[in-house]
Amino acid sequence: MTMNLKQLRYFLAVVEVGNVTKASQNLYISQPAISNAIKQLEDYLDVQLLIRSHAKGVSLTEAGKDLAVKAKALLSYAEDVENQVRDLGQALSGELSIGCFVTLAPFLLPGLMKALKEQYPKVSLKVLEGNAEQLQAALMNGDIELALMYDLALNPSLDIKVKKVAPPYVVLPANHTLAQNEKVKLSELKDMPYILLDLPLSREYFLSIFDAADIIPNIFMRTGSYELVRSMVAAEQGYSVLAMRPQHATTYYGEGEVACVALQNPCADIAVVLAAVEGLRLSRKAEAFKEICSDLLALQG
Asked: Where is the signal peptide (predicted)?
């Protein structure tokens, strides 16, 4: 007996919904057929993959979690090989699942998707927007192949495919006395209300800039919305520190504008990266997307 793709598909179907009954309905396969396939997997690998409970359905053992990640990658690769052989001489096709840090998505995805459509019109993107913790979990679970995010506390099991430095800067109301300066020190702003972009890992990075300058920011507001931060600054309610610079000075608020001023304080730069799970083979679609990311980020400086 050997392990086969059908067994892995049945196993992942159960993992996805958490019970055999629902998986059998989704696949239009009998419950005994699915249970038998998973039992064969467990016998062949000599490990328990699922913990079965009548009340709670099934949960994964550590071995099951590991197999689920690798099985997703293997099935994706198998599909890629199948499409490649079937479509020799034809363009790439099918869906590619990626993730993008929520504040980066408006900056990067439109250009990337436009370039992808121009080069590979038969490839579609399924995008998960989330914070750093959510994206890293999705990568490790095999839900997405690639993720665009900041290089903040990255899981050591992740491999960086593309990298672009994004130096932090100060956001001020356009009419502020320091808005026309080439650079500004945090000490010049320490008494102003500070509006913190409050997302996991991002908040720690921005606050570390103040720590390095031995300054305690006067935090007026915390929000997970990038555009709300900018709108509050445009409304002259304070200032902020961000990493990606928009191409315009207007905000959703509609009144007033913001100015982006370089930060004079020495601080660790943050970088935008395209990450994947180390050691897992990327599909041809993912490799193509990686090349597009590399080209586009290089053009953006």
From this structure: none
